Amino acid sequence: MTATTTEPTVADAIETRVVSHLHPEGSFDPADHAVPKGLEEIWRFTPLKRMRGLHSDAVLDNRDHKVEVDAAPEVRTETVGTNDPSRGSSHYVPVDRVSARAWAAADQVLKVVVPAEVVASTPTTITLHGTGTESAGAGHLVIEAEPFSQATVVVDYVGSATWAENVEIVLGDGAQLTVVAVQDWDDDAVHVAHHHALVGRDAHLKHVVVTFGGDLVRINSSVEYAGTGGEVDMLGLYFADAGQHLEHRLFVDHNNPKGRSKVDYKGALQGESAHTVWIGDVLIRKEGVGIETYESNDNLVLTDGARADSVPNLEIETGEIEGAGHASTTGRFDDMHLFYLQSRGIPEVEARRLVVHGFFNDIIRRIGVSEIQDRLLETVERELAKHVGVAESVAAEQR
């Protein structure tokens, strides 16, 4: 017997339809989304030829991966069918072809539930191991934090894969939830995902995206509010090496009063053809009176041949707000910082290392998960070692 699935319809979401030109109208049917050509606003930065057909017609047969779950004792996890009512509970409707294809192709849903008023004693960790790139896969993850609960969920991606997925995050009233997604893939992985969060009244979400591995990684993250007083912190950290394309696109929809959002992403690039893309957009609707929002993105270019694209956007439909702003910077090392450190006897290579650590440290310490923070510091150190090796080789050639 084949189970039937009742999906939320576009009509159900009509009242919260995004009016931004940056966000096409959503649909669950992949046929409603044209195969992108690269000229569209939402695809113009993405190298479509490297996506292995995720955006067009690649078969998503879900063979080359395995999932491990290490849940906190207070947290419930289960695998359910695609007709489970939790799917679609975030009010998300796919806004691009990859997301719609992943929604249609996922054959099950991994569901994580933090019961009401529970304070989880340890983080819940979900690890997806990619075991090959010969076939592509699609996943669906739902994380529910019931009212007045507190928890941390870490989603870790490792190995080799061609992977598309949707992640839904739902916070009940007064819930406090931290979600950390770590893209630590092998160099040949392709990963395209959409994370969508629905934040309840007076709830607080900390959403963290960390991207180091993969050949091409594109993560879309979006947020809307289910009541007044919701708060969201969206933090990101990425480090691109030669040939990598790392793309992060964010959208905050202030559709309720007295909400708050803070977006802060930082990235470093090194090596020929390393490319990062950050697109941020905040929409403040007429209903979003009394909100406060700020988005920022900073990029540190370590070598020639690397490119960072950064585009912050603000769309404001009411003047009755507490504050709104955005900032974006892209540059090389601060020569004054290097001069200051070298004048105190610190060698140039070590001075550069200290500057990069200082650049990332603010984001790392705000993640709030000690195991992840320690791991990220080690990863940054490994990435810097690659840069130091290149720099020393160049210096030797010049001598």
**In percent, how helical is the residue content?**
10-25%
Q: What's the structural domain tally?
A: 2
**Which blocks of ≥5 consecutive residues have pLDDT under 50?**
1-16, 393-399
User: What is the residue-mean pLDDT, rounded to a whole number?
Assistant: 89
Termini Cα gap: 73 Å
Q: Find the structural class using helix and strand composition.
A: alpha/beta
Total E-strand runs = 16
The largest pleated sheet is described as: 16 strands, mixed
What amount of the residues lies in strands?
Answer: 35-45%
Organism: Mumia flava
Pfam family, one: SUFBD_core
Domain SUF system FeS cluster assembly SufBD core: 133-359
GO biological process, one term: iron-sulfur cluster assembly
